[in-house]
Amino acid sequence: MSRIPTLHKENYKKRIARATRRMLIAWIAVLSVLAAALLFKVGQEYWPLWLMQSRSPIAGILLFIIVLSALLSPIIIEFDSDPRPLSGPGRDPRLPPMG
Fold first, then answer.
1. Residue 88: band (very low, low, confident or very high) from pLDDT cuts 50, 70, 90
2. How far apart are CA 3 and CA 10, in angstroms?
3. 27: how many CB neighbours lie within 10 A of its CB?
4. CA 86, 20, 71, 38 torsion: positive or negative?
5. Contact between 76 and 20 (Cβ < 8 Å)
6. Model pTM?
7. pLDDT in tens, 19-51
8. Lowest CB count within 10 Å: 4, 46, 56, 62, which one?
9. Distance CA 62, CA 81 (A)
10. 93 within domain boundaries
11. What span, in angstroms and rounded, lies between the C-alpha atoms of 51 and 47?
12. Is residue 92 part of a domain?
């Protein structure tokens, strides 16, 4: 794992947070367009039969994923921009090197 100088650490975190926020916005926008197309029956002439029959459950699942993504977005951004080291077998990264 590379070490980031303390001076640049905040800018690095902000850059990662910005990129993650943009990806989440794109994810939610794409899902919103799909859900709106299903709810307002946009292009229904071109839909396969199975999609016309299961339109409501699919729209409900999409809306649930949109709401869940929007509610979890602060946690996702924080976790992505400031990951914590996992404890487990091996050397503790907080301890000075041995030898």
1. low
2. 13
3. 14
4. negative
5. yes
6. 0.73
7. 999 999 999 999 999 999 999 999 999 999 999
8. 46
9. 26
10. no
11. 6
12. no
